[in-house]
Every structure is written in C-alpha cells, then in structure tokens.
Amino acid sequence: MTKVLITAAGSYGDIAPYTGLGARLRTAGHEVALATHDSYAALVRAAGLEFRRLPADPRTRHAATADTADTANTGDTQDTADTRNPGGTRDTAAPDRPSGPGRNRDLMRQAAAFIKELGGGLADAAREDTGLLLLSATTAPLGHHLAEARGIPFLDLPLVPGAPTGDFAPVVGGGRSLGRWGNRAAGRLSLRIIDRLYADAARDLRARLGLPPATPRTVRRRAEAAGRPVLHGFSEVLVPRPADWRPGLDVVGNWWPWHAPDAQLPPVVEDFLAAGPPPVFIGFGSMAGGEGERLSTLVAAALRRAKLRGILQSGWAGLSAGHSSADADLLTIGEVPHALLFPRMAAVVHHCGAGTAAAGVRAGVPTVPVPVTADQPFWAARLASLGVATAPIPFKELSGDHAVARLSHALTQATATPARRDHARTAAHRLATEDGAAKVLKAVTHLTETDPPPN
C-alpha cells in the first residue's frame, strides 16, 4: 500500500476527475488523499478520500469579486488564473469590459498571486509519510520542487495537452492552427509564460524547502531531459497523441468524476423527463458569473423558438427557469452527475471545459458548444471536427441582437440532424472502450515498485 497525495486546483472541472481516479486507486489498496480547495471538501470525502486543504479557492475569490464588481458591467471576473493551463487566463468579463495590454498585465499579476498563495498550501498538504505525488497541470510546476526536496516519486496527470507540438497551437490560443512551425513556436512561448507565472512562487517554495535556487524553466527542463512520464487524462477520440511528442508523453483516456454506484437523478428531474420528450441541457459551469438573468431569458427564448424543452444547470452564472406558465417546459437544477443526466438529453449546450466536453461525447448526444475562454475554444473546435457538435457559438456572440435566433438555429441543428447523433453515438462507443484510470493505476504500481520513497 502506498500513501498517495493527489493535488488539484481550480474550478469543479479541474477537480472532479481526480475524485474518480482517487477512488480507483483506493479500491486497489492505496491510501489516497486529495488536496484541493475547501469548496470541494464534501466531493472529496464522498469519494472515500482524505481531504487536505489548498488555499486560493477560486469559488471564494469569485464571490468576493462579484460582491465588489462594478454594477455598470454585465459580467464578473471569474478565476484569477486559468487553472487548467496557467499560461492563459479565465476571464468572463462582458464584451464592454476594458481590455488590452494593461488588462492583460493585471490578469497576469492576479494569476501569479493565485499561484504564489497555492505554493505554500501545497507544502503544507504533503506530509512526511507521502509515498507518491500525483499532480494536476496547475500544481505540477510547484509539486516538482516538493518532490525534489522530499525525495518523493511523482507523476504528472494533466487534463489538457501542454507540450509543444506541430499538430495544434497551445490550447489556450483559441483553437486556431498557426501551421506546424508556428504551433511549435507558440507552444514553446506558452511554456515560457507559465515559467514566468510560477517564478515567484517557485523561489519562495524552494527557499522554504531548503533547496538551492532554480528557475521553473530549469526544473521543467530537468524533468523533460529525464523523460519523466506524463499521463494525459483525455481521449484520443478527441485529441490523437501528437507523433512529435517525446516518449513518455502519453494520452491514456479520461478519468471520470466519482459518483455513488447507486446514485440516481433527483425525483424532480425524473418527473420532468417523464413529462415530455427528451430536453436539452444548458449550463456554463464556472463561467459567466453575474449574467444569470440575461442568459436565462435568452436561453428560454431560444428553446421556445426551437420548440424544445430544457434543463438549466444554475452553475456560477445562476441560470434559472421562470415560474410562469410559459416556462413549464424548463427545469432548473444544481449539481447533478453528467454521467446520469447527459444520456437522457436530446443535446447538451455548454462552455466546453475539458471534462464537460468529454462527458457529452461519452453520453452519445450532440453538443452545441458555447466556449468562453482559455482551453474552451480548443475543445469546441475538436467536437465540431469530430462531427458531434454544431459550429461553436463564442460566448461573446450571445449578447447581440441575433443571439436568440442563432442559439435557436444551433439547437435545431443539434437535435434534428440524424447524422450528428450518429456521429455522437459512434464516438461514445469508442470512448467506452477506454479505461484511463486503469492506465494510471498501472503506472502508479510501476513507479512505486521501481522508485520507492526513501525511508
């Protein structure tokens, strides 16, 4: 038995997949703790894992930002860093929010502050008896220093591709290819930006751990030179492994959020499903904070125009169906496992975070992608190219005069095109053959047998 510490930081989609992975490791006999933010303590404990606290909770920061937001703006700033790939930023400001070099510098400073706060918490979470560190994309650049200081084996487990490749540009670059040479150059630049974001936090953490000075770039290059394994938690159905990646960079398939084996949809959801034809799911996860009223009105109008029923997941946006007779075909829900809900839908509309995008494919239903920022346009483009989604509707385009008509048209395309549903079902069958958690378990077993921690 190995005492395993998983570290993950960010919003729900950045945390939840590691609960399912942790539960799989625990079933195999390992003792597993998951270090993350207070907002997800109940989620971690429900999966049977030990919860350890990490600071810089994005949900708390979001709430504080919302409380102090300028009421003249229609959107609130969300997470202070893109927690899937800190080389970018996750910002859901309305289109009229100031932008440009000054704004970008502010976001970079906020991201660096988020990471610096995270560094100290990571050191606190790793106890002396930790036998293995499993690191998310956000925590890995800090976790490598911790592993060096404590002599702990580690394994990087990102949910998105991060290594440079000619196949595609960095995932936070909007999904547009720059050509093979340009893609690789942009990928290298993205890594340098991440190194810069982590510089202050790495310096402080190394000093605290008694390590000699070393830049994030130096530590990253050491890991690359050593050929350290990196297991990516997404499917080759969506992103085939780039042929120009070095050995050891592997795509193993998704690991899915844990839910109880006997879990069922709430009775109110079952009653709604039984009352009519399959509805459309609409949710924006941790995106679009402060825009709930506007989006709810828009979504309801688009669904009525397309003659479809809908389930609105409130999320950070605060989506909510009305209470009039005109809204009888709408239902508002909170957190419900996508694995239980999505297969019952006619289509799903969402922001295309990595986990939600994969959940839609797994369910075998068409998607209407509404990407907001960061890696979301990348995943939206992947879904469309696979034939399981309509053309993406950038979130900023849901604020114009024709937003209702455009969303309604996409809903009709998603639900009334047999070929798209056939593509979705085919992709789901391919995804069902994969077991990403089993591949991580195999790597963990190999790593703990060949690279045990010192006594």
Report on the structure:
This protein is of the alpha/beta class and 455 residues long. It folds into two domains: 3-254 and 434-450, Glycogen Phosphorylase B (Rossmann fold, 3-Layer(aba) Sandwich); 267-432, Glycogen Phosphorylase B (Rossmann fold). Helix content is 44%, strand content 10%. It contains 15 helices and twelve strands. It has helices at 12-27, 41-46, 58-68, 101-125, 140-150, 179-209, 216-225, 267-274, 292-306, 338-341, 354-363, 376-386, 403-416, 418-432, 436-450, and strands spanning 3-7, 31-36, 50-53, 132-135, 154-156, 230-232, 249-251, 280-282, 310-313, 330-333, 347-350, 367-369. The strands form three sheets. It has a five-stranded parallel sheet, with helices on both faces. Helix 5 (140-150) crosses helix 6 and helix 9 packs across helix 13. The longest helix has 31 residues, at 179-209. The protein is globular and about 65 Å long. The relative contact order is 0.13. The model is unreliable at 63-101 (pLDDT under 50).
Give the helices and strands, then pairings.
Elements: E1 3-7, H1 12-27, E2 31-36, H2 41-46, E3 50-53, H3 58-68, H4 101-125, E4 132-135, H5 140-150, E5 154-156, H6 179-209, H7 216-225, E6 230-232, E7 249-251, H8 267-274, E8 280-282, H9 292-306, E9 310-313, E10 330-333, H10 338-341, E11 347-350, H11 354-363, E12 367-369, H12 376-386, H13 403-416, H14 418-432, H15 436-450
Parallel strand pairs: 1-2, 1-4, 2-3, 4-5, 6-7, 8-9, 8-11, 9-10, 11-12
Helix pairs in contact: 1-15, 4-6, 5-6, 9-13
